[in-house]
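TA notes, week 10

Several of you asked for a full example with nothing omitted. So below is the full record: structure tokens for the whole chain, then the designed sequence directly under it. When grading your own attempts, check the secondary structure regions first.
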């Protein structure tokens, strides 16, 4: 018997939860522990997943033979486009305010949250930003991991991964192998936990409908449209402008046609890593990029370039804050931007990776992990859309860098 795909399982669980929550009312709160257990499992894997993924990723990047001018161009492109994507998402979520006034059953803890966040982010915006920068460097990395200080963990892991490449063999090979093995183990564990997403969705949504009614999905629809609008702006305006200007006359329309097969595959699989072989083939055969460029830029992009994921994480965090009635200051929004940027670099190119990374951002700005349950209901279709944007950005990066290297292209 053919196994039902995970996204269909989640959809079925969602529909069942809506029915159960609407029919049973407050009695449906009996299923709340299922959602709580799922969120605790996600929280359990965050620190080891972040540590192993970022350290192994940075160690492999830093040790690449082609690192240098080409590596610098690639990294600058990926960081710049991810930052642009986050800022587009931040502008739209502030303009539209999808969570403002939303009835999501989350109003009770607002005062406690506001008080806690005010204690962490008091003072002028610039003093707040300075405080954030100072807190990014951990005095004790082990304590940062125990207490879940995500920015400190990420900064330490980036430095640790880089300096692994600076030690001689055999220590360098041993350390890279250790963290790569750890990352593979954490990915297996993550896949295992994600298998229980339908059960978690059922518990979380049943509680949500029981406390707030089915009208809650109207507000989630506005949130989903905000994310989709941000992805559309980034994919259809920001990246084509970069193609035309930095790519020295590359036609966005021709390049889109060249990448059609890869983009459709990315949309259907929700995995930039699974799409990578087709992305490389399309970039080389249809766009005319050399294998020297594509073999370096595209695998790196599948690892660290997550424009769509970064935008989604920023909008989702802001939406959850708005739903809780928290008005994030400039300093708080700055930490969302920086964390989304850093976390998007560490996000794996697998389905629902952005959802796991969302836990990191919520912890970084002091928001309850229960907010993850709100966005699970509409996450699948958004996952497909943001993965497509991730792959589109990767391919644009390959073309832009090829043009700056003097290559003649077919687009």
């Amino acid at each position: 018997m053919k196994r039902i795909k995970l996204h269909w399982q989640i959809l079925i669980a969602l529909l069942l939860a809506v029915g159960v929550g609407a029919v049973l009312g407050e009695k449906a709160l009996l299923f709340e522990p299922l959602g709580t257990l799922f969120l605790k499992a996600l929280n359990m894997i965050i620190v080891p997943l972040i540590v192993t993924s970022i350290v192994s990723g940075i160690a492999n990047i830093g040790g690449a033979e082609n690192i240098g001018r080409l590596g610098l161009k690639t990294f600058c492109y990926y960081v710049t486009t991810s930052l642009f994507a986050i800022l587009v998402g931040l502008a739209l979520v502030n303009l539209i305010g999808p969570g403002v006034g939303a009835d999501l059953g989350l109003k009770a803890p607002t005062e406690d949250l506001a008080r806690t966040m005010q204690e962490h982010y008091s003072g002028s915006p610039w003093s707040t930003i300075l405080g954030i920068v100072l807190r990014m460097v951990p005095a004790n990395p082990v304590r940062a991991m125990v207490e879940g200080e995500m920015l400190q963990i990420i900064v330490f892991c980036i430095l640790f991964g880089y300096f692994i490449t600076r030690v001689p063999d055999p220590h360098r090979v041993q350390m890279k192998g250790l963290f790569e093995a750890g990352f593979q183990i954490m990915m297996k564990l993550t896949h295992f936990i994600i298998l229980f997403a339908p059960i978690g969705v059922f518990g979380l949504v049943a509680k949500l409908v029981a406390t707030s009614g089915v009208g809650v999905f109207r507000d989630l629809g506005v949130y989903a449209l905000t994310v989709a609008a941000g992805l559309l702006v980034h994919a259809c305006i920001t990246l084509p402008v970069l193609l035309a200007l930095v790519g020295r006359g590359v036609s966005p329309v021709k390049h889109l046609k060249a990448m059609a097969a890869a983009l459709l595959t990315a949309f259907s699989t929700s995995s930039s890593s699974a799409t990578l072989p087709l992305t490389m083939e399309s970039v080389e055969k249809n766009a005319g990029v050399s294998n020297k460029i594509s073999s370096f830029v595209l695998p790196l992009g599948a690892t660290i370039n997550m424009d769509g994921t970064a935008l989604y994480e920023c909008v989702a965090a802001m939406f959850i804050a708005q739903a809780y009635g928290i008005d994030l200051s400039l300093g708080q929004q700055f930490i969302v931007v920086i964390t989304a940027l850093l976390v998007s670099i560490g996000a794996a190119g697998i389905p629902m990776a952005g959802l796991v990374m969302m836990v990191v951002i919520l912890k970084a700005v002091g928001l309850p992990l229960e907010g993850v349950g709100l966005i699970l209901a509409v996450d699948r279709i958004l996952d497909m859309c943001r993965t497509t944007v991730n792959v589109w950005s990767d391919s644009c990066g390959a073309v832009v860098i090829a043009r700056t290297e003097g290559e003649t292209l077919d687009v």
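The chain has one domain: 6-404. Use that as a sanity check on your answer.
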